[in-house]
Specification:
Oligomer: single chain
Shape: globular
Strand content: 15-25%
Largest sheet: 8 strands, mixed
Radius of gyration: 20 Å
CATH class of the largest domain: Alpha Beta
Number of helices: 11
Helix content: 25-40%
């Protein structure tokens, strides 16, 4: 028919602070919202869907994924545990499968922050051209780290501002829409600590300058306090993980307008499988969980901008139900349900620089939305329950 009219829904647009009685009209061909409101104009020949008793929200945005990783070790691809040699066909197969899982579970846009063989960049281009059905992808390509630094299996080792600048320029030339850097060590790699400082302010700033010059973003894996502060000073758009925040770091985040992407579910997933993972990883993960929750709760209470990300692909951190569970953990850490919904919609869209097309339910935006059975502002767990997913106006089967 060309257009579909959805009526009688309770709608969280991403801008309002509660679910309101709103109707909306979708252009099925363009995949966009045509009109949203209480008095939508409807022609007689449009298809009508009655959503009485249902709750509608924008599709979730996951701002921290690694789609080429195999979190359950079933396919034999790359992971931070098995150390397998990466292989492009296998990595691509895993990535496509993970994208399907994300979409089916309500994630309609992602930012991938560390890929092999530029797979995220190439799949992102195919999605934008309409050649594959998948979440929208803001790709980073290879992450940048110091020689011997965190996540070398996912990225490119660089030393000094000149090398970092050169690597960032090459990534941007390939189509990267974000530059990912490693400011600290982490949990999943042996021989380092989350508090270890790795890339310097000067090294990170060189890459940030290049990204911003092209209108793109830059982010930093930063878990320890000093590394977090270094990354903020360097000008990154978001701090990933932010495990050890102190009062000064929180004030710096607010002053610079820097987002935090918590990924609370990453250590949580490790801590549920302590008998299956290396001792070094489990020990560090158990040590950081309490501080992590405290830091994110304090940041949210202070008014730091929070965007949702899961670090999907790390051990037992899947691409399915844990997307919604991250929102649950955010609320457990101290965010309100409204803050959690904003983190995965309007806030994440702002961080990814896709607010003109995604993150809210409004005219001319992509018709990416979820139909829920219950109100997640009353119980955030509702997002993780049975749902209907629409991507660009079409129901995901």
């Amino acid at each position: 028919m060309g257009k579909t009219y959805f009526k009688n829904a309770h709608v969280f647009t991403g801008v309002n602070e509660s679910f309101e009685a709103l109707d909306f009209l979708v252009d099925d061909q363009a995949g966009t919202f045509v009109e949203v409101g209480s008095d939508v104009t409807v022609a007689e020949d449009v298809e009508v869907v009655d959503l009485a008793g249902k709750y509608v929200m924008p599709g979730m945005i996951n701002a921290h994924t690694h789609i080429i990783l195999d979190p359950l070790f079933k396919i034999g691809g790359l992971s931070s545990v098995n150390g397998n040699q990466s292989e492009p066909v296998v990595d691509t197969y895993i990535a496509v499968d993970n994208l399907k899982k994300l979409l089916k579970n309500g994630v309609t846009y992602i930012r991938d922050v560390g890929s092999t063989y530029d797979i995220d960049l190439k799949l992102g281009k195919l999605e934008r051209e309409g050649k594959i059905v998948a979440p929208g992808i803001i790709g980073s390509g290879a992450a940048l780290m110091m020689t011997g630094g965190h996540g070398a299996e996912l990225g490119r080792e660089v030393d000094g501002p000149d090398e970092t600048r050169k690597a960032a320029r090459e990534l941007l030339k390939k189509g990267a829409r974000n530059i990912k850097m490693m400011a600290t060590g982490g949990v999943s790699i042996d021989g380092e600590q989350p508090t270890d400082v790795q890339l310097s302010v000067e090294e990170m700033k060189a890459a940030v300058d290049e990204a911003h010059h092209k209108g793109r973003t830059a982010c930093a894996h930063a878990q320890g306090t000093q590394g977090i502060k270094n990354a903020i000073i360097a000008g990154v758009d978001s701090i990933e993980h932010a495990i050890y925040l102190d009062d000064e770091a929180i004030e710096m985040l607010k002053e610079h307008g820097t987002f935090v992407v918590p990924t609370l579910v990453a250590p949580w997933a490790i801590n549920q499988h302590t008998d299956l993972l290396p001792e070094f990883m489990v020990k560090k993960s158990l040590e950081v969980q309490e501080a992590h929750f405290k830091s994110i709760g304090c940041a949210a209470k202070a008014g730091v901008k929070i965007a949702m990300g899961t670090d999907a692909g790390t051990p037992f951190n899947d691409f399915e139900g844990l997307n919604a569970f991250e929102l649950d953990l955010m609320v457990q850490a101290g965010l309100t349900p409204l803050q959690a919904l904003q983190a995965t919609t309007v806030n994440a869209a702002e961080l990814l620089k896709i607010a003109s097309e995604a993150g809210t339910i409004a005219a001319d935006k992509l018709a990416d939305f979820l139909i829920l059975e219950r109100n997640p502002l009353e119980d955030i767990k509702a997002v993780g329950e049975e749902k209907i997913v629409y991507k660009k106006g079409k129901q995901v089967l």
